[in-house]
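Example record

The entry below shows one chain as it appears in the dataset: sequence first, then structure tokens.
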Amino acid sequence: MNRKRKAIIAANEISEMKTYTLGGYSQKVLIEGRKRTNPIVIFIHGGPGSPIPFNEGCRGLFPEMTDQVTMVYWDLQK
């Protein structure tokens, strides 16, 4: 991870990854945002019409979005 991404992550009030099991499937969630009070947007990995693969590897990649909203990247692991 490069220095710029590390600086973006460090400046966020929230940047955490969690794993949940739902319906017997392991699911990873990355929650990232500049401020905890920002509106929440949920991105589901592999959704139709999505040109960008939003998933847990996106940590620090989209500061123009995480400055405005709290991103929740939902990534189903099969």
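Notes for this example: Residues 3-76 form one domain. The longest strand covers residues 14-22.
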